[in-house]
């Protein structure tokens, strides 16, 4: 595997190497399946910025050390910060900023994706010019399992997939494997895992940023494929998905899907339905609305919207489901979250509206589509950075009984 080129005994969570005219970035948390912590986010942003500005670098490769590309965001980080308002605000802000710059990167990016590529991890792979997966790659956006929503640009990306596949993947968290990821349009090429090391070596020796030359090299290692008869991407299953997941509400989607489950040859639907019915009703409703809105929004609008949604979920604006989901699935591992509200009918539109409500303009995610300002939308330049750092300074000089940071953050 290509990941073996990097010495895994190094302690850096992100390793950047410049080999000739090629930059190689490796997410280096193999024991944690390369989950994305606040430090990973910060370093990825810094190293991508440096390589893009370096005239000698013509091509950038991103990969994960060990057996996974990235299993997604570091959920324990969020859970540990649950008692402090906005404890993960910086990581959230920087992650959305990072996703925007990957989408708009000025040099060819190649992702070498072996193993798990899920949630926030998949958001690093999907928008790249060249996303190479193997037969062992597993893709999913599993956020509804923990009462969250597909974020990091996925309301933009999922909404642009064929038919209603985006709604299906976003709501169910269904997994796609290897060739399915390419067939769905979420990756560009599939290469046998045993050839990934050789492919990387050829890309390094290419020493070029010419996209035609890069694609030509990747195609030399790529394989043709056919979709398995049991894949959800088969025409007969996609026609059902397109029909059912085009309904206006989650309730209508479930009713329509359940009606199809009783028809001959549709045995595959029942386990999907069973799974949907144990997910957070709040998370499902937020997810459907976000993807639907994404169909009519630009990338920037989607990221700004998702930033609002994520922060309102982290702040428990209408529900504690996110932390309940992490507790049940990741911390205690009893797989029995106690959602509140417990039913779809109890989740009112007025509540969901609060999650999507615009922030004051200066508190929105600050990303710019103007080339000269692309690298200036950082957290460091945001009002959040200023206020929270001021609060920390106040907290150091005032008595411990003074609320300090809590008061200033509540004003945000």
From TrEMBL:
Q: Which InterPro entries match?
A: ClpP/crotonase-like_dom_sf (IPR029045), ECH_dom (IPR045004), HIBYL-CoA-H (IPR032259)
* Keyword set, alphabetical order: Hydrolase
Keyword presence, Hydrolase: yes
The pathway is: Amino-acid degradation; L-valine degradation
Reactions that this protein is recorded to catalyse: 3-hydroxy-2-methylpropanoyl-CoA + H2O = 3-hydroxy-2-methylpropanoate + CoA + H(+)
Which residues does the UniProt record annotate as the domain Enoyl-CoA hydratase/isomerase?
22-356
Query: EC number(s) of the enzyme?
Result: 3.1.2.4
> Which EC class is this protein assigned?
hydrolase
Q: Does the keyword Endoplasmic reticulum apply?
A: no
Q: Which superkingdom heads the taxonomic lineage of this protein's source?
A: Eukaryota
**Protein family according to the UniProt entry:** Belongs to the enoyl-CoA hydratase/isomerase family.
| Described purpose of this protein according to its UniProt entry | Hydrolyzes 3-hydroxyisobutyryl-CoA (HIBYL-CoA), a saline catabolite. Has high activity toward isobutyryl-CoA. Could be an isobutyryl-CoA dehydrogenase that functions in valine catabolism.
**PANTHER family, sorted:** 3-HYDROXYISOBUTYRYL-COA HYDROLASE, 3-HYDROXYISOBUTYRYL-COA HYDROLASE-RELATED
Q: Fetch the NCBIfam families from UniProt.
A: PRK05617.1
The name this protein carries in UniProt is 3-hydroxyisobutyryl-CoA hydrolase
Give the species.
Solanum pennellii (Tomato)
